[in-house]
RNA sequence: GCCGAUGUAGCUCAGCCGGUAGAGCAACUGAUUCGUAAUCAGUAGGUCAGCGGUUCAAUUCCGCUCAUCGGCUCCA
């Protein structure tokens, strides 16, 4: 074998015999780091540590703690899980098992699913496999060879995957460890012994290849990390998000309920939830009026013929509710646009009138499938902060930019970070290529003009036009789609909207559908989780609660209470015959921003002692000063 | 809609191999009048999600329905 030169990660060069493996190279270079290296890159291409080197190359290592390394580790864990499952259960087929953003899974065909006990068994078998320290071995074979190999083993899903590979695929790679063989691109970790910290989380159904027409497989989710601390931290994060779950907080803070008797996906707002919603909606109205929107209101039901005219009946009938009135069929609105069309058509419009911006806090009903309902996030009746902007094609860019500014402002007010996506034409869509091109360009140009970074979401647009989605990120880095801007050239067509141009001729306007917060219900759900129920003062349903030390302080506390209420402070009282500590504890759990303690000192001085939610005591202050403080926070949206 | 799990007091939960149910908190009553995260005692509270079946007997076993939870698919 010839001598080869290897450029090491630190830039130094080493000479070795050709045929040496990556693992051996690293072992001779830095044996001290070998334990934390999961794979390597040869000339920037990821490879296994067992990969032999035959010529001069540059070598990089992939650390177990890196994002890439963790992905490889987890992917290997999924193979080990598959091995464990195959060993424990008979008549089971493996399908597909990748790593994900924060863990891994593997899909199996297994009748009846996995129980918790099964998962425990699988997990302990995995630990045995890890401890046995089997090497991961790669073998490149022809596709035909692989097909017959998996056919022989009765693995029809693998055969299907192989058959779907392109004709000119050449060889495919197989990986085996401890007698378990899998089709896999790799790379994998060197030996199963590197697997130390993992946990299987849950089992769930998943369609083969993500298509609901296919068979449902059984998926087991797990996660793994480089260290125990990282796993503990992750599990801690899951616990934390459970505490912040808006369904739980909604109950605890008495904001809303979902009621089995009332029906699924239907929110019943309690008083405090209603106050929160009202605050948000008032803010919305004010902000929209400032930006030249005209408030309008449409009816809840409109004749079916109108939904046919708009195209909704053809496309979304299955998700709509219908009712009959005096022999006439009506559709319950799933969107607010129709009435807005009719409002536009009630008058002749000059180019001087454009753009018109119709805004409605429109309540819509959509028949969502039962399995998708989820607290406030996915419901069957919700209210959108919906607007339709009808303008000339030339005005499109400025309008989109203005909406982007509006979204940026709103996200800042509520404390969210967000990402932007541009979704292009889907397979099932209507309209000419020309108009799609025009609309997609308009959206993209506006984002570029505003220097907003965005990702293209190919084929994910609405059926009538492309859209910009704003995905906000909450404090736990989970993404939620709220704001969206959708370009529509179909509805103006179908409703024959027009404006009179400078030339005195009729022209076709274009239309934008857009929401800022999206569905108020969903936004509230996100907001509740984002703040963990501890809302800032301006949003808090209850801003302060008066806590008396003993019964003799009640008359003074009552006087303070009416002062606060008169000043518009959202105050409550707790005059019960309980110890102060007890009342504070309760107010704390209700996450009320200010607890106002009233005892002898306060009565004598004619003042109050506010205690902040975080435990900080503000000392004795005048009632007027406290009112000013609350007002200040409300105007500053703090 | 699909796969799996779950449904017991207002809330959180216990209840073994079938013999009609228990705890803590909350509520109510009484005592206590108390200074920054739980005062003590007592009382009351349940068609064990609903319907049907098996059984001498069902909260418990079986079936169906409804709802919820975790996913998958979907989200105009």
Structural overview:
With 638 residues, this protein is of the alpha+beta class. The protein folds into four domains: 61 residues, Ubiquitin-like (UB roll) (Roll); 174 residues, 2-Layer Sandwich (Threonyl-tRNA Synthetase, Chain A, domain 2); 231 residues, BirA Bifunctional Protein, domain 2 (2-Layer Sandwich), CATH 3.30.930; 92 residues, Anticodon-binding domain (Rossmann fold). The strands form eight sheets. An eight-stranded mixed β-sheet has the order 16-20-21-28-25-24-22-23. The chain has a five-stranded mixed β-sheet with strand order 2-1-5-3-4, sandwiched between helices. The model has no long low-confidence stretch (mean pLDDT 93). The chain binds one RNA strand of 76 nucleotides through strand 12, strand 13, helix 7, helix 10 and helix 17.
Secondary-structure blueprint of this entry?
Blueprint: E1 3-7, E2 13-17, H1 22-29, E3 37-42, E4 45-47, E5 57-63, H2 67-88, E6 93-94, E7 99-100, E8 103-109, H3 116-132, E9 137-142, H4 143-152, H5 156-163, E10 171-177, E11 180-183, E12 197-207, E13 216-225, H6 228-244, H7 246-252, E14 256-258, E15 267-269, H8 271-290, E16 294-295, E17 301-303, H9 304-310, H10 312-316, E18 322-325, E19 328-332, H11 337-345, E20 356-365, E21 381-391, H12 396-414, E22 417-423, H13 433-449, E23 455-457, E24 467-473, E25 479-488, H14 490-494, E26 499-500, E27 506-507, E28 510-519, H15 520-531, E29 544-548, H16 554-566, E30 571-574, H17 580-589, E31 594-598, H18 600-605, E32 609-612, H19 623-635
Parallel strand pairs: 1-5, 16-20, 22-23, 29-30, 29-31
Antiparallel strand pairs: 1-2, 3-4, 3-5, 6-8, 7-8, 8-13, 9-10, 10-11, 12-13, 14-15, 17-19, 18-19, 20-21, 21-28, 22-24, 24-25, 25-28, 26-27, 31-32
The structure holds one RNA strand of 76 nucleotides.
């Amino acid at each position: 074998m010839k001598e080869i030169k290897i450029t090491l990660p630190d830039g130094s060069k080493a000479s070795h015999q050709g045929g040496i493996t990556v693992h051996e190279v690293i072992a001779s270079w830095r044996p001290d780091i070998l334990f934390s290296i999961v794979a390597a890159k040869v000339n920037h291409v990821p490879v296994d540590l067992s990969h032999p080197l035959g010529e001069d190359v540059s070598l990089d290592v992939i650390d177990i703690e890196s994002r890439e390394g963790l992905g490889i580790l987890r992917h290997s864990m999924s193979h080990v899980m598959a091995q464990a499952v195959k060993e424990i259960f008979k008549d089971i087929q493996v399908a597909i098992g990748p790593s994900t953003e924060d863990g891994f899974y593997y899909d199996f065909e297994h009748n009846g699913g996995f129980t918790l006990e099964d998962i425990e068994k699988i997990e302990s078998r995995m630990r045995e496999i890890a401890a046995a320290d089997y090497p991961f071995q790669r073998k490149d074979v022809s596709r035909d060879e692989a097909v017959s190999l998996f056919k022989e083993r009765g693995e029809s899903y693998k055969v299907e995957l192989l058959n779907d590979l392109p004709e000119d695929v050449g060889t495919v790679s197989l990986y085996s460890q401890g007698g378990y063989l899998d089709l896999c691109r790799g790379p994998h970790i060197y030996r199963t012994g590197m697997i130390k910290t993992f946990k299987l989380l849950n089992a769930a159904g998943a369609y083969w290849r993500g298509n609901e027409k296919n068979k449902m497989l059984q998926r087991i989710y797990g996660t793994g990390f480089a260290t125990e601390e990282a796993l503990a931290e992750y599990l801690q994060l899951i616990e934390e998000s459970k505490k912040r779950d808006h369904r739980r907080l909604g109950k605890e803070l008495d904001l809303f309920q979902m009621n089995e008797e009332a029906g699924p996906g239907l929110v019943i707002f309690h008083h405090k939830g209603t106050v929160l919603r009202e605050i948000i909606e008032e803010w919305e109205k004010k902000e929209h009026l400032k930006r030249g929107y005209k408030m309008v209101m449409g009816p809840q039901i409109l004749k079916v013929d109108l939904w046919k005219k708009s195209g909704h009946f053809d496309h979304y009938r299955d998700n709509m509710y219908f009712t009959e009135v005096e022999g006439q069929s009506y559709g319950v609105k799933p969107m607010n646009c129709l009435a807005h069309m009719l409002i536009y058509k009630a008058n002749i419009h000059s180019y001087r009138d454009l753009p018109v911006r119709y805004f409605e806090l429109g309540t819509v009903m959509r028949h969502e499938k039962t399995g998708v309902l989820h607290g406030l996030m996915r419901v069957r009746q919700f209210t959108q902060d919906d607007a339709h902007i009808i303008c000339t094609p030339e005005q499109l860019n400025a309008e989109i930019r203005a909406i982007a500014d509006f979204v940026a402002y709103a996200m800042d007010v509520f404390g969210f970070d967000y990402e932007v996506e541009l979704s292009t034409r889907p397979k099932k869509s209507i309209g000419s290529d020309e108009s799609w091109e025009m609309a997609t360009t308009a959206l993209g140009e506006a984002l570029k003009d505003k220097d907003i970074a965005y990702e293209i979401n190919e084929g994910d647009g609405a059926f009538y036009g492309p859209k910009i989605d704003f995905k906000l990120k909450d404090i736990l880095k989970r993404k939620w789609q709220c704001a969206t801007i959708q370009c529509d050239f179909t509805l103006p067509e179908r409703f024959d909207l027009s404006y009179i141009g400078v030339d005195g001729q009729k022209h076709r306007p274009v239309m934008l559908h857009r929401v800022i917060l999206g569905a108020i219900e969903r936004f509230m759900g996100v907001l509740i989780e984002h703040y963990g129920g501890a809302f800032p003062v301006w949003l808090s349903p209850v801003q302060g609660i008066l806590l008396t030390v003993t019964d003799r302080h009640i008359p003074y506390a009552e006087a303070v209470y009416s002062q606060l209420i008169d000043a518009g402070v959202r105050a409550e009282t707790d005059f019960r015959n309980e110890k102060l500590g007890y009342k504070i504890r309760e107010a704390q759990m209700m996450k009320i921003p200010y607890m106002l303690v009233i005892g002898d000192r306060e009565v004598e001085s004619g003042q109050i002692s506010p205690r902040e939610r975080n435990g900080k005591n503000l000392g004795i202050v005048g009632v007027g000063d406290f009112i000013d403080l609350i007002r200040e926070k409300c105007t500053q949206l703090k």
